[in-house]
Amino acid sequence: MDKRVYLLTIVSFVVGLVELILGGILHLVAADLNVTLGQVGMLISIFSFVFALSGPILLSVTAKVERKKLTLLTLVVFFFANVLAVFSPGYAVLLIARIISAMSAALLISLCVTIASNIVSEPYRARAIGIVFMGVSASLVLGVPVGLMLGNAFGWRAPFVLIVLLTGLSILFVSIFMERIAPKPGISLLQQLKSLRNIKIVLIQMTSFLFLAGHLTLYAYLTPFLQSTMGIEGNWISVMYLIFGVAAIIGGGVGGLLSDRFGPKKTIIGVISVFVVSIFAIPFTTSFMPLFIVVMMIWSLLSWAITPAMQSYLIASAPETSDIQQSLNNSALHFGIAFGSMVGGVVIERSTVEMNALVGSLLALLALIVVALSMKKSLQPKEEISPLKKAN
Questions:
Q1: Are 229 and 353 in contact (CB under 8 A)?
Q2: Which of 9, 84, 346, 360 could crosslink 97 through cysteines, CB 3.0-4.6 Å?
Q3: What letter would DSSP give residue 185?
Q4: Separation between Cα atoms, residue 355 and residue 350, nearest integer Å
């Protein structure tokens, strides 16, 4: 494996940290900037929405730019966007900083994936892409606890200072260790959208969107949930997020094992079904801490256990456009994060934080219905329905 793949993984991890880093410190930002929890939650939604929308577009627009140069330029933009976040005097400036960082983060992660697939030989391509996505997954899981620990200790701006420092190191390492990489013919945005004419693929992408939306409806507001329902504060919240993060990372491996053992379809149905029950049950376990931790760990583990199975199902359903579908699936995931955190913000503003779990479980249940529809025989490729036609 080319060692530069691990450098790209580190870059994707650093860039990915910023998306959910506000999740654990909503109350700190709200108090300092004199805004509501829902408004701060919207900073997560807007980031994820801009990320999902701008990734495919920016990658197409910059298709002819030399890859190392583009990576460095985008890292510099990302660097200054987070400097702006550190010194934000109010909500509006922080919002602008989040938009700029989201656009640059989307392009950077797309670049990391495409560069990784191009610098290794064919047998290692899938593995290289998987390693880079591990960096993204780890950042989404660890962003909240990292932000929470630094925010509680040094204030809500401290996590952004960490991002600035890590981005500076990334710029240095990329400039030293990454060689010039000529751009390859890119896939136009129109070509990417044309691949969605297949209703089965649309349903699979919708499943990812709805599942992540259900997850983020509660996860983006886990700190106020813990505070209001269990009276947990400070370091104990950090411990909860640490437990959650460890379970989520384990979930990725468990999901891969389940998918290999039982197949992606059975794994997806099973994971989402248990996920719906676990997130719905969360508010009913808060009176007994050991039970709450067990149920929370199941919820966390399943939130990422679905990823390997979904990727396998997507590739098997559209092998001829698998690269495009993986890119679009990344956008679907971030649209889900945006929508879920937005819905959670509306719920917490108009009701109680306990209702976030119910709404999240309903969105996940809808994901289960949608993915079940995608598995109907009438939506299977014609070759699977008619072996005779395939033989001809």
A1: yes
A2: 84
A3: P
A4: 10
pLDDT digits (tens, 9 = 90+) for 327-374: 678 788 888 988 998 899 899 888 888 999 999 999 999 999 999 999
Cα torsion through 237, 137, 269, 128, rounded to 10? -160
Q: Is residue 383 part of a domain?
A: no
- Structural domain range at position 161: 1-186
What does the radius of gyration of the chain's CA atoms come to, in whole angstroms?
Answer: 21
Q: How many other β-carbons are positioned within 10 Å of the β-carbon of residue 145?
A: 23
Query: Are both 167 and 194 inside the same structural domain?
Result: no
325 and 178 in one domain? Answer: no
- Mean pLDDT of the 188-204 span: 77
DSSP output for 7-76: HHHHHHHHHHHHHHTTTT-HHHHHHHHT--HHHHHHHHHHHHHHHHHHHHHHHHHTTTS-HHHHHHHHHH
User: What's the one-letter identity of residue 350?
Assistant: R
Residue with tokens 């044309």: 194
Structure tokens at 360: 């999240």
Lowest mean pLDDT segment, chosen from 36-40, 73-77, 179-183, 291-295: 179-183
**8 Å CB contact between 10 and 133:** no
Residue 231 Ramachandran class (φ > 0 left, ψ -120 to 50 alpha, else beta): left
User: Given a cut of 90, is residue 315 above it in pLDDT?
Assistant: no
Specify the 3-state DSSP secondary structure of 352. Answer: coil
Q: Summarize the chain as % helix, strand, coil (round to 5).
A: 85, 0, 15
> Are 9 and 154 in the same domain?
yes
Chain CA centroid to CA 2, Å: 25
Tokens 């985008």 locate to 74
**pLDDT score, position 392:** 42
